[in-house]
Amino acid sequence: MSGTMMDFPLTLVAVLERVGKYFGKIEVVSRRPDRSLHRTTYAQVYRRARALAQALQHAGLGHGDRVATLCWNHAEHLEAYFAVPCAGGVLHTLNLRLSPGELSYIVRHAGDKFLIIDDVLFPIYEKMRGEVSFERVWVVPTISSTTPAGCENYEQLITTARGEFQYPALNENDPAAMCYTSGTTGPPKGVLYSHRSLVLHTLAIGMADTFDLRQRDVLLPVVPMFHANAWGLPFLAAMVGAKLVFPGPHYDPASLLELMAGEQVTFAAGVPTVWMGVLEALEKNPGRWKLAADLRLGIGGAAPPEALIRALDSLGLRTMHSWGMTELTPVGTAGTLKSYMLDWPDDEKYAVKRLQGLPLPFVEVRAVSEQGEVPWDGESVGELQVRGPFVAASYYNLPEAADRWTNDGWFRTGDVAAIDPEGYIKIADRTKDLIKSGGEWISSVDLESALMGHPAVKEAAVIAVAHPKWLERPLAVVVCKDGWTISAEDLRAFLGWKFAKWQIPDAVEFVEALPRTSVGKFKKSELRERYQNWKWK
Ligand code: AMP
Fold it and tell me: Which DSSP symbol is given to 148?
């Protein structure tokens, strides 16, 4: 016997229709590159998203075709967030901070058909143009209305829509969006979200003990829409009808604070580095920005120092700490205190608040060491493994990465964690060889192989070292070949050919030999210990 309820598909169409029907008057504000504020409403976003969906279909978008975006956070990007999946396509957000080489690889691997790109980001496309072939490229005029040769204007594309748009028949398991995550070893890996996973994730992050977002809220996603769906916040804002405020390309603390004060933002989400900058600006300029009294900050993507959580709290800025991964759509946990913890002494409360929190509903977790699943004692550590309806079951078209899933169907996060008796997760370390600098990944493996491609270099290991502003920065430890010498500056310049500037190690240490494990690998744990008190100049 089955239940007798309707089998109603969980698709983004329902979210778009809801925002169009009920929240048309609510504003969507985007800061333009020239700092002016572009104001529109959900009614317009709804109308234009449907027009864009229809225009894309006229342009030849078929079921499951990928449409890449290379855009900052703004209303047009929101239109694409809904239009592409609701037209039956897959929205593929490209991370504009990656090097042209990485981007070209990702575009080719994903098989992207079309590109929507901001006018101000066009130089990035020009650098990879020879390596990729989009059928059509539409340029969003955020400051200039001239369209580069060989491309078309995004506004004109929207005007090609005619009559009433009919949604294609969509199944909830159809693909809707796609995001690549940096490789630990090997190439970047694509995560292909379904409508169902996005909808369930949206419901889970909106809950009161997660982001607690209501219609009356004003939401500022500082997290970029090109990295892990901006934590799913654009979908959530539309579902609840909350006013959206987008920073465009202006991420410096003063610009964010001005926007938060000007629009009376009540929920803003970003990585710890962003809030460290904001805290510093607030402390230097007390009283300069009149922030909303009920402002809350979502903080995650990297571990926030406890001192940061305390300092923000002391200014009346309540934080919600969460942990997540691109593979989890991306939010996996939320750091809410349980009712009986609210009366605990401050020190005990902060000891919980700095943990990565409790899993969201339907996310199951375990920590597994070589001996098997570790007890939930808050001390024993193992690799954090997860499963659930918004956890990836494989990477897109990458069978060789199947070992990231266990035989019994859990995703291996690459994070090392302890779980306490209350169920709170504490991320202790990372098995993946990556450095997270200001919220964006740098692959130490890629840097090492590039360094070891230099004729003067015999061996190189790159490790993450704590940094006051970026939380982690890469340090290269290099052994030169006998009879060779090279300067740190020349090595850094050599890396400049392949890597974006921010990915290049800030310092190079020359040593006689690298420590090794029993099987001859570089013993990075020993290097991390050796350089743990490293002082950046
Ligand atoms: P990404 O897929 O780029 O979102 O990165 C996911 C990874 O970021 C996780 O596997 C963790 O290593 C790290 N991460 C995300 N959130 C946190 C957090 N709150 N605390 C510690 N590490 C985090």
Answer: P
Q: What are the structural domains of the chain?
A: 12-250 (3.40.50.12780), 364-430 (2.30.38.10), 435-530 (3.30.300.30)
Whole-number Å distance, alpha carbon 335 to ligand 1 midpoint, is: 14
How far apart (Å, rounded) are the C-alpha atoms in residues 402 and 236?
31
Which ligand 1 atom is at minimum distance from the Cα of 440?
Answer: 3
523 tagged catalytic: no
Residue closest via CA to ligand 1's atom 22 equals 302
The structure's pTM equals 0.90
CB distance 246 to 75 below 8 Å: yes
- Ligand 1 centroid distance, CA of 146 (Å): 39
Contact 309, 354 (CB under 8 A): yes
* Concatenated DSSP letters of 232-276: GHHHHHHHHT-EEEE-BT--SHHHHHHHHHHTT-SEEEE-HHHHH
Report the atom number in ligand 1 closest to the C-alpha of 327: 2
pLDDT in tens, 256-295: 999 999 999 999 999 998 999 999 999 999 999 999 999 9
Q: Which of 181, 184, 266, 333 is catalytic?
A: 181
